Write the structure tokens for this entry.
Amino acid sequence: MENFRKIIQHNREWAAAMKEADPEYFEKRAAKQEPHYLYIGCSDSRVPANVVTGTEPGELFVHRNIANVVLPSDLNVMSVLQYAVEVLDVKHVIVTGHYGCGGVKAAMGTASYGLVDLWLQPIRNVVRWNKPELDQITDEQSRFDRVVELNVLEQLYHLSETPVIQNAWAKGRRPLLHGLVYDIHEGLLREIATGVDSQEGADQLAQRRQSGVPAGPPPIMGRMANPIMAGDELADQIAQRVMDRMAVIGAKDAQKK
Ligand SMILES: [Zn+2]
């Protein structure tokens, strides 16, 4: 209980200090939010989004989960993305991984942690798809670091495939996608991929996979005759792709059983 009281006490002190420095500090921010960035990061307590990016309340729209995973089946991250891009009109979407990520480490091992094992499945795929490259890294720590980086690239690629990003790009709009890795030893953000603003750019990220096996269905734009197509036709294509994908997964599951 003592530890809990401590955070309330710290909150009082922080609010008083901010008000003293600027009496309007909270009122200005209470009126509205106009963040330029959507930050998708890990839940890890050592990587606080505003602190490591030096941003103030109102500047960063944030989504965090274990190992900064972006999955189209996750209603939470997809809702955050849609609201950030279509309503808040953020200019940048940033996926931030971090070295020493426990989620990535768990996905690289064989131990079972319960429900979270399901969540980490996409990262096991990252390890599998990049096996040729990873097998060449003999140092265990370096291999771990590399999986953290590859996971960020993979999640950027997932982002690029979402209808929200596809629609924004089809209309010639931002956001730009960025991939960062936070070094918990140095406190520094490392740029893994910067300023991805097209399907071509996202495809290049995906091509880094040594095995050449794509993460999901082929990107829509690559198969589109008319790159500015949007609306119902695009929605139909996306729906068809999801159904095709479900059929493949269903067939694989049936084989396993
Ligand atoms: Zn983590």
User: Anything to note?
Assistant: Residues 1-31 form one domain. Residues 210-230 have pLDDT under 50 and may be disordered. The longest strand covers residues 188-196.
